[in-house]
Amino acid sequence: MLRRRVIPCLDVADGRVVKGTRFVDLVDEGDPPELAERYANEGADELVFLDISAAPERRGTLLEIVERTARRAFIPLTVGGGVRSVSEMGAVLRAGADKVSLNSAAVADPNLIVRCAARFGRQAVVVAIDARARATGDWEVIVKGGREATGLDAVTWAIRAVDLGAGELLVTSIDRDGTGSGFDTDLLRAITSRVRVPVIASGGAAGPDDFVAAVRDGGADAVLAASIFHRRIHAIADVKATMAAAGLPIRLVPQVVA
Amino acid sequence: MTTRPRIAVVDYGAGNLVSIDQALTTVGADVALVRDGEALRGADAVIVPGVGAAEPAMVRLKSRGLIDPIHAWLAADRPFLGICLGLQLLFDGSDEDGAITLGVVPGRTVQIEHAPSLPHIGWNQVERTRAHPLFEGIADGADFYFVHSYVGVPDAVASGVILATTDHGGPFASALARGSLVGVQFHPERSGPDGLRLLANFVNLVRAA
CA nearest B128: which of B144, B139, B112, B115? Predict the structure, then answer.
């Protein structure tokens, strides 16, 4: 049976792991490949790197970090942040990523999803959607790292992104991100009930029960979190134990190979 | 001292070859990324990795002059591992884009039927249908990492090649073996300690060949 995944997210800026609250107030939290290897040994099912500096001149630093990580952690790696073209996606994959996530660039040029899926297969194309609740009870797509509203309805965009070739969606609630107030399961359910591709829940994890809720109430296939793992507030094994106890299919934490 | 077999990993386009290179090196092989048929000479084993669609992959293999050398390699029953798309290419053709593929194993590549989610992305259990040294030391039902929408389905006459199955809305062949040829639909290079063990087992098979 297909397992529900637990995915530590490493926000990377200028070669270091950082974490802020609602995309600001960044705090240095370590070396990306070192953290990646620790998480792989602790039972992470996959890793996500989001390059939040994403300035073009930093691209070389990111590729070097991706390759060092791929050589230390034998679990899948998704990389996002600032990828704007098929050739940039190719460079990230060649450096050792298995999937690339597209965000602002896909909103600006939806055909980018088509071109990347045609070149690398839809299984390599993740579309990341940052969503903010509106007073009207729906959600709006926000781009540029939480700074720019688009007026796009998040559920409509999710459906369109899948039609264009997204093989997976990474859905972040900007309202919940870094706040520890739990995942927005209404947002998740609104999207997972409308698409067939796997959906990764992001934004708001405080404890193991939130992971259970993202899957059971939100319909997520995978659950992503950053600060609770970086700051060792909860171990991946504890999160997985809680998910297993709730009856969710999970991959047991493997023995570390000496 | 144990010898390090030389393994040719076929590089036929973009994609992550860092993981397979590092994983094979870790389990005791010397890796050469090969981009033409000539480069297969001197190799002890060939690995065809890859993800994505069949037709562009076949076009790139052909343009690099790799089709005939791979056919000759397989006809001689020399050690071979196909991973994901590299396994699917062994069949006669693919429903994904109508590509005619290598035709080494009778059967077709088709979309996973009745899948609750598609693509099939994540860790799933690999259940053995028969014993094989490729899985030595790995628990039956162990989890491996998958990322694909299509699967190779052997014809009834070739169903004996199936080594293991995995369930995603119904069982599909997730590993097969025939002589020195083995293929896996999952990614051992991304499947943690069990994946490394499987690759170590393959390297041991190469040493014994």
Answer: B139
